[in-house]
Amino acid sequence: MRMVLAAFLSLALVVSAKAQQNKQLLMVADVKVTCKGFSAQDKSALEETLRTAVKREIGDRLGFMSKENLYEVLGDNNIDPAVCNDYLCEVELFRKIQVDYGITPVLTRLGDKLRLHLKLYVSSNGEELNSVQLDGLDLPALDRGILKQVSVLLEPLFARGEKDVLAKVEAEIKQQEGRELKFRKIDNEVITFISIPPKAALFINGKAIGDTGLKGTKQALAYGIHKIRLELPEYLPEERQLEISKGMTERTLTIVLSSALRRVEIDSTPEQGAEVFLDNQLLGRTPLQHTFAINSKPYELSLKRDLFKTASLALDITRETTNAQLFTVVLEPNYGLLDLSSEPPGIAVFLDDEPIGTTPLKNYRLPLGVFNLALRDPAWFEVSIDKLQVTTPLETLVHSFTLQRKFGGLDLGCHDEQNGVVVAEVFLDGEKLGETDPRLQHELPVGTYRLTVKTEHRTITDLVVINDHGDMYQKDLLLRSLSDEELAALARKRCKQELETLQTRDQAEQRLAEQRRLKHLVVLVPAAMLAVAAGIGGGLAFGGSLNDDELADQTYQDYLLATPGAQMEYLYAETQDLRERSRWKLLGAGVLGIVALGAAGVAVYEYLALPPMPAPRVTSSRGYALNPTYDGELVGLALTGWW
Q1: pTM assigned to the model
Q2: What pLDDT digit, counting tens, does each position of 318-358 carry?
Q3: Which CATH number is 2-177 given?
Q4: Which CA distances in Å does 150 have to 38, 234, 306?
Q5: CA–CA distance, 569 with 555 (Å, rounded to integer)
Q6: Domain 407-481's class?
Q7: Which CATH fold would you assign to the domain 188-256?
Q8: DSSP 40-57
Q9: Contact 347, 405 (CB under 8 A)
Q10: Coil, helix or strand for 355?
Q11: 59 DSSP 8-state letter
């Protein structure tokens, strides 16, 4: 058997070498056009496309006679190909120029379609080996289908060559071995495998072939039944039984792979926000959307949330699981409830020295355990519960407290320059507390108060702060007394200072407003002028463009009616020049229009931003009036008049 294989390989190499030295020749005849509306240029382009496709298909397996060589040989033999009008003449032509095979293309029209008919002949005996035809609405449509049809057309030619080689190998083996050996061709079909998505691993009968690539892969399969399997990460493997038979029409197998991923939703009840863990890795919090791959075993998930017991979920992801499918886990409470009230309410509550809110608390959740509870407020004495125990889930603990208030004191007296007692009214947060006759003493709870002391001519205010039990606010206030003339003089001085301050401020505002108006007017006026100028210029340019268009139309009409010659060329050039000027003027009109709009926008903005001139608020004074509470401290006179 080794000798047979060696003889086969050596003979194949010899035959291949001889074939390279004496290649059989193939030529393509000119396209015969039997329909109208197809120019010589189109015919030449179609012939070039056909010859290129044939040359690409045969490669170096056959010799190819180019169009230039063909016409040179025809000229040397005084042969005119135009006189041939049937295939017998063309076959005779192939024989005369000594080519082995020839292709005759014929172009016809069927309705609104073009049809290209290709036939392959053996020049020695005129045998028709194969024929194909392709249809298209136009020349580009024919060009797109030529390469595929040429491949089909030349199949018998290459099969014929294979038979000749095998026959020579059989004869050589018979001569050398003295016995007959017949090669049997394995009948097969070339199948194109396409996967969606692409690049899936392809297995045929359990053997890895490769991947399907971006546009599919072609594989030759012998007649019979084959097991096809496609695999791709994150997709489910797909298997098919493919039967290969002679003459089968469908040679493309497209397999759509189903995703192996499912995006499901995990939620918890009665409360959301539970942390979801898979193999001690946090996936997120409920409600959670997460993608899982289809698995033969369930995913073991755990859900954890404060004040609830840890819950488990065996998540089984199968082919039947749908996207957005909801899995809900019921969480079991692991806390007790605290109802806490106090008198007065609003007292801060601390649990193990951590603030948890203010009273009253209703259904406050406490984890199971032992805690220290305290109620604290600066104005009240603290109350607490040591070792508050919560042992049973959903157990309710009810507690109520009455707090004892902390107190401080107020000790206040008033006197004049001669150290005489001054009787004054004392107010605390707007409410009268009493009079300093000679002193006022009062008990105050912890807190902050606004103290007001009033006499006939004077008012004094202060803050009283009682921080803790036993704090005292103790003061002796000096209340000076003034005569009416002194008070009037002081009031006049104060009013004069106030008037001068107002006048100075008005003058400064006037100057600032004038500067702002000047700034806006400097921009507003040029912008308005530019907007007007640009608008007028744009309108003139647009009108000129329309006028040039009309002149161009008139000139073009004259051009159409003119006698061929210099006048006609001049009119055509003039028409083009007028249209070019019209386009430039129209472009200029557009640019000027944009400039006009921009300038108008700037002008409008500056006009709207233009500040008004403020009216003077102080023009004259008309006198003074008695104001018994001037500046909250002194008794004096207030300014009256024009403000």
Answers
A1: 0.40
A2: 888 888 899 999 999 999 999 999 998 999 999 999 999 99
A3: 3.40.50.10610
A4: 22, 41, 75
A5: 11
A6: mainly beta
A7: Immunoglobulin-like (2.60.40)
A8: HHHHHHHHHHHHHHHHHH
A9: no
A10: strand
A11: T
